[in-house]
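Subject: Sanity check before I submit

Could someone independently write out the structure tokens for this chain? I want to compare against mine line by line before I put it in a report. The sequence has 359 residues.
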Amino acid sequence: MRKKEIIGTLEKLGIFLGQFSNPAGRNLTVMPWLEELNKEFFQPMDTLVQNVHIHNPWFTGENVRYALKVAATWLSAESLVNWLSCYGNKTDTVQEKTVAVVMAGNIPMVGFHDMLCVLVCGHRLLGKLSVKDDQLLKLISDIISAINGELEGKIVFEEGRLKDFDAVIATGSDNTARYFEYYFGKYPNIIRKNRNSAAIIDGLETKEDLEKLADDVFRYFGLGCRSVSKLYIPADYDFSLLIETFSKYSHIANHNHWANNYEYQRAVNLIDRIPHLDTGFLLIKENSNLSSPISVLHYEKYDHLENVLDPALTGSDKIQCITGRQPVDGRILEFGKAQEPGLGDYADNIDTIEFLLNL
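---
Independent answer below. Compare away.
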């Protein structure tokens, strides 16, 4: 299928998904193809958005809508053309392969970007969904086939053992990566491991800056690789404004799974007499580890900002992204942008399209 046709298909998918990015719902613009699509798929998708939390309590309606909003932004014609223009005409001359994609389930639709990459490269996707996120992408696959019948059969989800494939993209933890390397090492592969994100505070942040940082910390309950799990702060930093600002997410204490983690972590830190700040829904404590447990935010002090901006940190293979008050091109994003990746912001900083084009 030619690039223009696949872009047209994905653009329609984006318009459809954009209807669910806020509770307002159905698009009232008169587009015959959308009316037909809505007759079959609007209600199933709307029901799934509202009820998927029953299957996975971390997938709240708010977080699912946000994931759909990001996906819809990716699928504008402009975004797709700009993304693929970096690869010239290579996507038009690819010989079709079957790519096995083992997907994570930490945040809603986390495997959607890999699905897009396989489709735009003209390959066939053999997907293995996480049991934590095994509904949204199945429905989206059906919608893609309804928009463009030529893509029917290009996305297949396997519940059993994966077989008969030419390459592998597998996302998991540092632990599962060892098994992936054992089973899939003989195939061309991308095997992703644990990553976390961080934020740099210089002490000059306004309340608005810190509100955006709160989004980086709490969006998706901090479960994404782009979720900020650690702060780098000046040695004499005063947490007062940050704690006040983070209260915009105090409602998170009402989420049963978050509250259970918070109470457990609070008890452990109190029993072990570990110094920490307690906001009533989040623990903030000094710790050199980049990764932090659910309901805990780590911080580390610095004497000179230049030390934190060192490429040894910003380029670490354990860091997915870093946010800050002052963006630095290619290294530091603006506060609030951690969960708004572009199409070219590849997981583990490995160019998935380039990999797929060279199979």
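---
OP: Matches mine. For the report I'm noting this point. Residues 32-55 form the longest helix (24 residues).
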